[in-house]
Amino acid sequence: MVCQTVKVGTECIFMTKRGCAYNGGKCHPIVDNCNGCDRVIEYPTGLYCEAYSEPALKWVPGPCSLATHVKRDNGTVEAKKLNPLKASKRKGRSK
Predict the structure, then answer these.
(1) Amino acid 76: pLDDT
(2) Looking at residue 7, what is its pLDDT?
(3) Residues in Cβ contact with 47 at an 8 Å cutoff, skipping those fewer than 6 apart
(4) Does residue 67 contact residue 37 with C-beta atoms inside 8 Å?
(5) 8 A C-beta contact, residue 35 and residue 18
(6) Do the beta carbons of residue 56 and residue 64 sit within 8 Å?
(7) Which residues are CB-neighbours of 8 under 8 A, at least 6 positions away?
(8) What is the distance of C-alpha 2 from the center of its chain?
(9) I need a labelling partner for 76 at 20 to 30 A (CA). Which of 1, 3, 37, 41 fits?
(10) What is the per-residue pLDDT for 75?
């Protein structure tokens, strides 16, 4: 249904015939960490995320998973140490 509370005119999964069914009855504005993200949209009532209804919760465990302005480390994998004794035994079995 179309939002009638905060993001007026936007499709919202939380809108029902009785109003907004989200926690608190409305979407929450962005937090400071969201500034610079491509998913931030300005409405007459303020700045809101187009992906999440409560952006502050996405930043609690760490960086938001959909933040477009956050550079992520692709996780450089360290070379695992190999025990030479076990390696020689494996090599002997494969023949």
Answers:
(1) 64
(2) 82
(3) 29, 30, 34, 40, 41
(4) yes
(5) no
(6) no
(7) 2, 43, 44
(8) 23
(9) 37
(10) 61
Pairing verdict, β 19-20 and 46-49? unpaired
Task: Name the token pair of 11.
Answer: 């499709």
In the chain, alpha helices (H): 55-58, 84-93
Its pTM surpasses 0.85 = no
Helices (H), 32-82: 55-58
| Burial track 41-62 (b if 16+ CB lie within 10 A, e otherwise) | eeeeeeebbeebbbbbebbeee
Cβ atoms of residues 57 and 51 within 8 Å: no
Distance CA 52, CA 34 (A): 11
Q: According to the model, what pLDDT value does residue 74 have?
A: 67
